[in-house]
Amino acid sequence: MKIETRLADMGVELSAPSIPAGAPLKPWTMSGNLLYLSGAGPTDAAGRTPVGRVGRDFDTAQAAAFARSIAVAHLGVIKDALGDLDRVLQVVKVLGMVNCTDDFTDQPLVINGYSELFVELWGENGRHARSAVGMAQLPGGMPVEIEAIFEFM
Known about the structure:
This protein has a 5-stranded mixed sheet with strand order 1-2-5-3-4, covered by helices on one side. The chain has helices spanning about 5-10, 60-80, 105-120; strands at about 30, 35-40, 90-100, 130-135, 145-150. Helix content is about 30%, strand content about 25%. It is α+β, with helices and mostly antiparallel strands. The model has no long low-confidence stretch (mean pLDDT about 95). It contains 3 helices and 5 strands. The two termini are about 15 Å apart. It has a single domain (about 30-35, about 50-150), classed as CATH 3.30.1330.40. The longest helix is centred in the middle third of the chain and has 23 residues, at about 60-80.
């Protein structure tokens, strides 16, 4: 089944990537058959970024939902870059960063919110190498930021 059909069946809608005007970066770049996605944070339906620390302002489940929303945003970036999500061969590497309190140690559970969507969509090819780390702060105070690398045909 086509990935976009599966997403529609799941009720997932993709949006186009956005980078602030004048920023010295872009949402994706390619090298050979690898697609590198810039770090992204969560946004709500109005486009606002939540602000706060996991372990103080957000619990693990809320942060995992933020991570899943980043996965959906990254799917929009992949669609923009490749034109067709079915060109993805494999999720290669994910770096998940969690803005958290000093005593918070469940970063992997937070980033599972991102990783699990790709396993749902691509099965074994959705499994990937990954780092899930705690950070003292993230841009704008966002609670989660994730970047990723995909192999495509």
